[in-house]
Amino acid sequence: MQDVLRVIDRLGSVGRLVVGGIAIATVAAVFYLVTSAGPASYVPAFTNLTPREAGNVQAALASAKIPSKLGGSADTVLVPSASVNAAVVAIDKAGIAVNGQHDGYQLLDKLSMSSTDFQQNVAMKRALEGELANEIQNIAGVSDATVNLAMPQQTLFLADQKQATASVMLTLSGGGFSDVAVRGVQRLVANAVTGLTPANVVITDQAGSLLSSSDGGIGDAAASALSCYLLCEAHRLGVPARIFVRMLLNVAIEGIVGAVPIAGDAFDVAFRANRRNVRILRDYFDGRA
Questions:
Q1: Residue 205 in contact with residue 177, Cβ under 8 Å?
Q2: 57, 117, 141, 284: which has the fewest Cβ within 10 Å?
Q3: At what angle do helices 51-63 and 84-94 cross, to 10 degrees?
Q4: Beta bridge partners of 169
Q5: What is the pLDDT of residues 170-184, one digit of tens each?
Q6: H or E segment and range at residue 166
């Protein structure tokens, strides 16, 4: 320190002013760089989250000592730009499903050697439900899906064995969801569960409207085939035009109104176009029409 002071004394007044100016300029430059940098810039790391997913993500990031905050729309979690990769790794390590994905077979990784049979069965069911929901969400027109499985325990006697059932709730993203797609979802779920048939898979949309039928669409197809057969037979037998038009109107009314969810099913049960047409033909040939 004394050597430094002796060097400064030899510099003279001008030299000391120059050294002092350089020191002050250096301190000012460091101060400016520190203050102008401001807080770390935050960028989106996880988007399109549900409130529950956002909360789980922030809790996991806090455990990993990674700062985070919600974006303006509350469905986005922001992290410092330098911590994006670390945040993704932390969330993956925590086994949290994001971006609309459901927890699937990764749930089985959380089981310990001391897990009971009951815990393993519950985890397996939840994992299968999550995997099925993720697959269904990949279908065009579906933005979210929830699958619930009811799988009874195996019994010693087949007569006492209860059938497996399933319910699927779809959040549709606009547009129609065809009957073919509904039956496809029924078969997708049924083929993933032992003992589950498509007829035991009930599908509804976010409004609670029933999309599936208990016969998987076979009943509607059979009714349509019978309607066509009756009309063809009426034409072959040469019934008057007024009789044929009445029968055709019955089929058209049932087809149009029957397409309305829930109310259409009730209308089909009450109206029964084929029975009406059989009665019309019988009355005609008996001379009552």
A1: yes
A2: 117
A3: 100
A4: 146, 204
A5: 988 776 788 888 989
A6: strand 165-172
Identify which of 74, 81, 109 has the alpha carbon closest to the alpha carbon of residue 94.
Answer: 109
Please report, to the nearest 10 degrees, the dihedral formed by the alpha carbons of residues 277, 280, 281, 287 taken in order.
180
Q: What is the pLDDT of residues 4-49, one digit of tens each?
A: 556 556 656 666 666 566 767 676 666 665 555 555 688 888 887 7
In angstroms, the CA 220 to CA 210 distance is: 15
HEC sequence for 213-255: CCCCCHHHHHHHHHHHHHHHHHHHCCCCHHHHHHHHHHHHHHH
Taking Cα atoms as reference points, which of 211, 205, 183, 186 lies closest to residue 196?
Answer: 186
Q: Work out the number of other CB atoms within 10 angstroms of the CB of residue 278.
A: 14
Contact 236, 202 (CB under 8 A): no
* pTM across the whole model: 0.52
Give the closest residue to 165 by CA, choosing from 135, 204, 205, 197.
197
Task: Compute CA distances 197 → 185, 186, 191, 205, 276, whole Å.
Answer: 12, 8, 8, 20, 33
Helix or strand run (H / E) with residue 150: strand 142-150
Q: Residue 166: what are its φ and ψ, rounded to 5°?
A: -150, 150
H-state helical runs in the chain:
2-37, 51-63, 84-94, 117-137, 179-190, 218-236, 241-258, 263-271, 273-285
- For 38, the token pair is 């401001």
Strands 77-80 and 42-46: antiparallel
